[in-house]
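Pasting as-is:
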Amino acid sequence: MRGFDEGRCVPSMRGEPAAPREHALAVVIHARQVNAYLTLALRQHLGSRDLPSAAAALVTDLVQGSTRQRSAILSVIVECARRPASEIDADCRDLLCIAGYDYLVRGTPGYAVAATWVDVAGHTVPRARGFVNAVLRRLTERPPAAWWEWLALPQATATQTLARRHSHPEWLVDGLREGLAAAGADPAELEPLLMANNRSPRVSLIVWPPGHPDQEVAGGEPGRYSPYAVTAGRGPAPARGSAVGVQDEGSQLAALALVRAPMAGRDERWCDAMAGPGGKAALMLSLLSERAGPAGRLLAADRHWHRARLTRTALARMARAPNGARWSVVCADARGGIWRPGSFDRVLCDVPCSGSGAICRRPDARWRRQPDELPGLVAQQRDLLRAALAATRPGGLVLYSACSLLPAETVAVVDEVCAHGEARRLSASAAVADLLGPDCLAGTDLWLLPHRHHTDGMFAALLTPA
């Protein structure tokens, strides 16, 4: 079975857990065993079980929360186990980390944690039941606050302390510190940013166009910045094919920074060069239809066939509007010279990246990515930006965006291309400054920070071919 973006499929799990905590353990163990992305494993597991909403919410919190906080919790578990993590059976280690999250973060009483998780061990890892009981007894002898204080090592550097307490790799803590500096933010915001990465994110919806009747179906409140955003409410789910979709407000603002920027000359040929799964492309199509009507043309591309297919589905919903812009989707790599030079007026270049701005949504991303992967990503990002600039007419606009806060993937890529005389930088932040109001960070580029803006972390730079 294929079809997931990353190419990893999640086979069905064997056995049927009897309680939410057993479901959570089954998801984590299974994801590790088959090297599946956790969010996909969780989605498939819950989709194949008819769990009550409260039980599904508990499973989700235990799986995602324990993964976000895994490094900090594992440090405590190792102390209580009195042996290195490598000497603890992998299934047992997963169980103890989720149990540790239950106690240290969720605040479940110690006696309940010990009794419940020893019982879970008896059902799932019976050979380790006695060991689990001993570890959890030691864990619950101290209150959670004492353990969090214990995590602050007296001789540690600031980076080590923050990494240990907030469960981030040290290289990522340093990278986010540099990102805040590049954004012009206060260095003291680093810890709030790390804390925001460990919270469950809100679900943001997009409604096309503003005021559409489906906004009432969404059942939420208007977004903070984007006129198209609605926070997910508790009403019925939007009908299939409706004008409501799931899209972070930061992604909406990135697309709007391109679409709202002033430009002279023709303005009817737009391109989303890496469009999958199609949310930004659908917003662009809606706005292009309003601006240019049937004279407008939108081309969306993605090199993965399944993401191109998702983009086609998203754009097909928008095509119902009469007198709308025409559109097409191609499965192609934007770096392959697939368009004639100067074909487009506006190009969105939303590049694949480390995802360091959205790790709250992808709990295992911080542990999957390694710093030695960045050079390869950066090289790909530079190539994609250069291809987007080549496809844009003189005087046209390219928006380079990334769901990352690391300078290597953001300002450094744009700086290098501009330094070689390939592009001239314009103001992305000015295009949406009226939407952000006082929350707009000073500077030419657009930066969105999770702890400040309650969106995914985003970077966007507006360029015109030199």
